[in-house]
Amino acid sequence: MTTFPKYIPQSDPPRPPWETLPTMYDLPSDNPEEPGLPDDFHFLQPLLLYLTFQPINWNPELVYSAADLNLYYDLQHPLWYKRPDWFGVVGVKKLYKGEDLRLSYVTWQEPANPFVIVELLSPGTEAEDLGTSEKAEDKPPSKWEVYEKILRIPYYIVFSRYTNELQAFGLVGGHYEPINLTNGRILMPELSLSLGVWQGAFRDIERLWLRWFTLEGELIPEPTEEVSAANERAIIAEQEARNAKQEAEQARRKAEQLAERLRQLGVNPDELI
């Protein structure tokens, strides 16, 4: 009698986790209890703003900027704070009282409020950032209220990396009015700077970035760009020096050839000078 091996049904092979488990889009960095926690963009974009915030008409020692730092704004409620994605101040030393790195920015202990604030839109913070959320009873005021009514920040900027939309608001008569862009940029003559959207690579990431320009539209370079530009200038200068040396050598040889030709004709070239 022939015996056949027993058939054992095979189960389907396991599916890889990227097909079955939640992705980063299902698990955003936003915490429901504290929306707007940083993701990669919320780190890199403020860093670029920080590196290029160089008000031309201000002493660099009196220019301060910060990202994701608690901003305390109400002396009557000293524990209330907002945490802008980035803000810049002029007339303030880089170190607190010239001595220590800041743990937070406490407006009643600083000589100046922020001059410009940038918020990067997140799905969980859009309503508050744009001032469309309803005011809750017994809750701190919204970002919009704090920036407009309490701190009276001259320039409030909102940028969405999802739509690449840049919105700007300026303080006019105690309330915010939309600012029209000039050649795609927000002009801030008090700083001799402008802010606009730039297509390029930062930290090897190619995309649209929010970035500082001069009023005339020239990019404010960040340190690695300055090094690259300096290297390029050095290479060009070296090439120009090499070309000049070659041209001088060619001119010398032509002069020698001409002198030799004159001697062959019986003319002393030294007597022609």
TrEMBL record:
Top-level division of the source organism's lineage: Bacteria
Keyword Coiled coil among record annotations: yes
Keyword entries, A-Z: Coiled coil
InterPro entries, sorted: Uma2
Residue ranges that the Swiss-Prot or TrEMBL entry lists as coiled coil: 227-268
Record carries keyword Transmembrane: no
Limits of the Putative restriction endonuclease domain: 26-198
CDD domains reported for this sequence: DUF820-like (cd06260)
A UniProt-annotated Pfam family: Uma2
Protein name as catalogued: Putative restriction endonuclease domain-containing protein
